TrEMBL record:
The keyword Membrane does not apply. Residues 389-493 form the Pyridine nucleotide-disulphide oxidoreductase dimerisation domain. It comes from the Bacteria. Residues 21-350 form the FAD/NAD(P)-binding domain. It comes from Occultella gossypii. This is NAD(P)/FAD-dependent oxidoreductase. Keywords: FAD, Flavoprotein, NAD. The lineage of its organism: Bacteria, Bacillati, Actinomycetota, Actinomycetes, Micrococcales. Its cofactor is FAD. Pfam families: Pyr_redox_2, Pyr_redox_dim. Belongs to the class-I pyridine nucleotide-disulfide oxidoreductase family.
Amino acid sequence: MIEATRPSLIASDVDVDPVVDVIVIGAGATGENVADRVVQGGLTATIVERELVGGECTYWACVPTKALLRDAAALRAARALPAAGKAASGILDPATVFARRNRFAEHWHDSGQVGWLRSAGITLVRGQGRITGPRTVTVTDTGDGTTTTLRARHAVVIATGSSAHMPPIAGLADVQPWTNREAVATNKVPDRLAIIGGGAVGAEMATAFNAFGSQVSLISRTRLLPRAEPFASEHVTEELQSAGVALHLNVDAIEARRTVSGTLEITLSDGSTVAADDVLVATGRTANTKDIGLDRIGLEPGSWLTVDDTLAVLDRNGKPIGDDTAADPGKAWLFAAGDVNHRAPLTHHGKYQARALGDAIAARATGAELGLDPWGRHAVTADELALTQVIFTAPEVATVGFTAQDAAAAGRDTRVVDYDLGKVVGAALHADQYRGRARMVIDADRNIVIGFTAVGLDVAELLHAATIAIAGEVPLDRLWHAVPAYPTINEVWLRLLETDGRDHAPATRDRTLVATADSATDEAVA
Ligand SMILES: Cc1cc2nc3c(=O)[nH]c(=O)nc-3n(C[C@H](O)[C@H](O)[C@H](O)COP(=O)(O)OP(=O)(O)OC[C@H]3O[C@@H](n4cnc5c(N)ncnc54)[C@H](O)[C@@H]3O)c2cc1C
Ligand SMILES: NC(=O)c1ccc[n+]([C@@H]2O[C@H](COP(=O)([O-])OP(=O)(O)OC[C@H]3O[C@@H](n4cnc5c(N)ncnc54)[C@H](O)[C@@H]3O)[C@@H](O)[C@H]2O)c1
């Protein structure tokens, strides 16, 4: 086995000014974008990073996992066509896939990202950042232990992300389990791989290692992809099973041990046992807040940070952590964005929060007005109403907004419309025996789409049309005028509209506009 390339980083910037407008702790995708926006807004920013600039997504998550999955997806697509399938009859070579993965993970070297920080005018300080007082962060160099104390004029932003959660399974620590980091950076294909966890990480890695030829056993205490529409989850379950993955669903892993022969044995709550050579733990994430000085501000180290809609960190009484200065008593100075606030733990949503927060910090500093109303410039409305995700399993699952179940739980009056993607000519042309389904969740009061899920080969690129319909609150009567090109898979939009019918009450206009018009009329009458 060739070990994964060791992380490699370059030194902090020299001549660091200890007083700066904004300090960002954590240079993942979120932190980088917060710093970029505040600098674009005319402020100075220093970013503190203890590992690689670029964070989890670049080196151990989104990017390298998709590189691990992409070749097999292309092969699967080719094999869904008779002539292309014949032409693509060879075997997938994992070593070639790993080499391409290494390139996308930038060989675990962050010089490219550091170069970008410099070009964006952001100062980098290497080390572990800790809050040591109001607007104050002390950075400890992880090599020589020297410290630098920084003070922010305007704000401190925590963007420290998350790490793999280790569940309390007896013996687990002793069998040297893989987390996402080892799985993503591996150069070996285990003969037998056990995966604990049936969320996005478990399902994607089962897809990847199954394609590399591992005998994969996946154990999950829930159904696969428990937050997705059940039909999407069932579809992925069936396809993984028919590809040879052994699924142990709705059971807990309770004990792990190595036998004398070196085989790893995992005992499940139903009494059965899974044998493997390696085990990947994919049971969710834990907040990177254990050692960032939360105790100094009355919060519990290790906890997710609770934020309000401005992303200000809240204290135990639900109040923003406020300033103690006479000039600005109570003014919020501490903010949190990305995985660490647990609102929407996805890279693109962390970056969305970063854009809103960075702009808001710059606006506050210059006394400009804040746009915090829903869908306003500084609001993060999409986290709640238009959260997007693509899970790159075979088949892919693409989701935005509410599932039918979540909409019902939120008390929305809905219509749910489903369509078999296999009946869409564009899909049938795309792959023989195309199997898939799409669902549109409609707010029946307002006649707008509030949720969309598709499962099927290559549905990822369908998602943005749905996202625009939801974020734009496009009335269904207008959506009939968005004509999908023939013969593409996007024609499913027309089929969903036809299935729903055209005779529903016209979309209610935006409630605030209606209210304004009504009150204007009332005033005129008065
Ligand atoms: C296997 C896997 C696959 C994924 N795939 C996708 C995907 O396809 N699409 C998607 O959108 N999301 C995906 N995600 C989720 C995505 O990786 C995260 O949402 C994203 O990385 C969060 O970004 P962040 O900047 O908030 O945190 P992170 O990326 O975790 O960055 C935080 C940074 O802060 C640093 N840090 C932490 N504490 C300190 C400290 N005290 N001082 C200094 N620095 C500190 C860390 O070293 C790190 O660099 C995946 C996750 C996993 C595990
Ligand atoms: N393509 C993507 O967007 C993508 C891909 C991978 C990860 N991510 C993100 O990364 C984060 C972490 O993903 P994840 O899959 O690790 O977490 P998750 O919370 O999505 O899923 C955890 C799974 O582990 C199971 N589980 C928990 N404890 C268990 C136990 N003791 N025994 C058996 N099963 C157990 C749960 O039932 C669940 O199925 C998520 O926010 C996810 O959205 C996103």
